[in-house]
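User: I'm putting together notes for a lab meeting next week and I want to include a structural view of one of the chains we've been expressing. I don't have a solved structure, so I'd like a prediction I can at least talk through. The sequence is below, exactly as it appears in our construct file.
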Amino acid sequence: MTTRDDTKTQLDALRSEIERRNPAQPEFHQAVHEVLDTLAPVLAARPEYAEPGLVERLCEPERQVIFRVPWQDDKGRVHVNRGFRVEFNSALGPYKGGLRFHPSVNLGIVKFLGFEQIFKNALTGLGIGGGKGGSDFDPHGRSDAEVMRFCQSFMTELYRHIGEHTDVPAGDIGVGGREIGYLFGQYRRITNRWEAGVLTGKGPGWGGSAIRPEATGYGSVLFAEAMLRERGEDLEGQTAVVSGSGNVAIYTIEKLLALGANPLTCSDSGGYVVDDKGIDLDLLKQVKEVERGRISDYAERRGSSARYVSGGRVWEVPADVALP
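Assistant: Thanks for the context. Below is the predicted structure for the 324-residue chain, given as structure tokens.
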């Protein structure tokens, strides 16, 4: 009979092996450790789950793809970034997970995100597996033409690894409707196929869902509202801190305002804005969605009620509700 001590010994050995095989990937190590800690009582009670190496297989990606992404800026200079796609687990269906374009992206971060995506997708009850991808490319400050050329180069390699029955990427940080559109256009150009299911997050004009841009932000607020109702409360009249200023954050703020809450903050990689009068949604959309500016631009144009904190975190601001 397997005892709790036996299970702990086995999991500790697995942790050590994962760290040895995946050096210098602290984010991935942390994610695996948290999952193993959660699974420990289950494995102690049901040791048959561990016998076929299920846990070991769960922690090892089925496929890891790293590729070069050369692209040309508006001055004719060639840059080279690195692209990633980690296809982690397809036990339930095609790999599914976003693409992130940010200077911090590396293999360890992509593996951490892909590992967590397995469980997030499993909870939906849909037949989808888990994966993640991206690049260390920074779209901030780049022209539309530069972003388009990068996306086309990125997809020129990625296309051979994805498909609506194989691996279905989506957006994430730095990858919104514009980037998904460029990626989808290049996929069609290379494959000569209209395969609407190969990418999610597309515009409604080329196979996307009508409410896709709002879904994640609205959903986070509705979930918070449901939690508060369990305590006999609601969001009306509550102050809220929101992190980010991209697609998810903007529609989180929109739904908070619709439910009578007062969102005070938004942020980007440079810092955050706190607006004592509450975030002006129209101005935020103008700055971020139309002009693709920085959150500091919002503070400059908002007036005396808003201040920008360079390098800070929104969690420093007192509020009733926090929505990361």
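A couple of points you could mention at the meeting. The chain is about 45% helix and 20% strand. Residues 254 and 282 are 10 Å apart (CA to CA).

User: Perfect, that's what I needed.
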